[in-house]
Amino acid sequence: MDAIPQRALLNLFDTGTMPMSITLPESIDEAFIAFVWENQLLPSPNLLLHGGKACSVVQPGRRNDHAGPDFTEARIRVGNITWAGHVEIHVRSSDWVRHQHQCDPAYNNVILHVVWVHDTEVRSANGRIPEVFEIRKWISDDVLSRMNRLHFAKSGLPCGNAIHQVSAVEAISWLDRMMVERLEHRISVWKTLIKLCGDWDEAIYRMLCRSFGFHVNALPFQWLAQRLPLKVIQKKRHDLMMIEAALFGTAGLLPPQSSHPYVSGLIEKYQYWLTIQKTPMMDGHVWKFLRMRPYNFPTFRMAQLAALLYAIPSFSGLVRDTEKVHDLLEKLELNASPFWKEHWHFKQNTKPHATCIGVNARIGIVVNTMAPALFAMGEAYEQQAWKERALNWLQVLKPEDNHITRMFCQSPLEPVHSGHSQALFHLHDKYCQQKKCLICNVGSAYLRAKEHPPDTAC
User: Fold this and answer.
1) 177 Ramachandran zone, left/alpha/beta (phi>0; psi -120 to 50)
2) C-alpha span between 400 and 365 (Å, rounded)
3) Smallest Cα–Cα separation from 13: which of 167, 136, 130?
4) pLDDT (tens digit, 9 = 90+) per residue, 292-321?
5) Considering only CA atoms, which of 310, 331, 332 is closest in space to residue 241?
6) Could you tell me the pTM of the whole model?
7) How many other β-carbons are positioned within 10 Å of the β-carbon of residue 258?
8) Most buried by CB count within 10 Å: which residue of 1, 10, 275, 344?
């Protein structure tokens, strides 16, 4: 949908009251009106209320994120009297009744009702009629134009080139906030997982399996972890080949028979495994190989996962007791069994290649599993040092390079470490994609700017 021409937009609303049949522009909502009021993006603090009374804003008030009026501790001067109280924001005055504020004593001290259009008179529970300010008549074409650019933007970044208006200090501060916000968002995921799994090792194991899926096979690896719990694998932790047989067999990836000694040994081990553990087998067709780099084939990654399960007795102990991220990366530098030096899967030989978990894969494991696990453990056990160490791990590792991080290249938000990459993923998913520009430092700075290029949003 194209942006509505701003002068036409204003003319549309120049009648005394808005007929209910006219649809409001999509970009106009309470969040936008509250943003304009809070930042006083108005031509002057001297305003005219509905009915023609002169009014000046002494203090717009404090934003209230809890129940009750939108702004508290506001002060406005009407004539010769200065009023102190609350400010309520609505698109239409009739929203006051729709939200049942006339029955709520919390709204008795509302001194100003800021609305886009005044379509009906309202009263508070004590019978008081609050003053009304129709803000639509006081917002400039420029501010409306910028808001429409953000709202109707079709690109991945609604603010477009406006991102270059953010100072380096603001950018770093915002990225740091997004990094912590992403980790705090993940805490809820870990809490749910801990309740489901019963302990941290099992929870980390499940997330680790997802990491070995590398997006394309993340879900099948998750299913594998659910069918083959860590506590079951650890019964045979000192037998690498048994761990491999359990993984490949449960995944449905083992061939029915083979002349190769290693593969036939796995088949034999898996048959024995089924006599002691009744783990249901997955359908082998759920695993994806097409158009993938051989290093990411699920068979090859599963062999590396087996090496990790064999070498590390406790994942929670690993993240809790390792101080430096480079030491953690070194502990994850493990090789799969010799068979995999000349194989990517069970079907045919290949030229010799490395079997070690590569550095980028290990960084991905730390960023997506180990660091969030340590942060969540720090929250659960009230260990601030663990949370700070998790943040430090992310700030030491190099940034990721993908289509999302490349959107922010050559801008103040260009990532300099992996923590910033995670911050940008969160910013893109939770703010840009959902058009929450008004609560983003970049979008709000763009709307507040007094001067800006004509086409700063795309």
Assistant:
1) alpha
2) 13
3) 136
4) 999 999 999 999 999 999 999 999 999 999
5) 310
6) 0.75
7) 15
8) 344
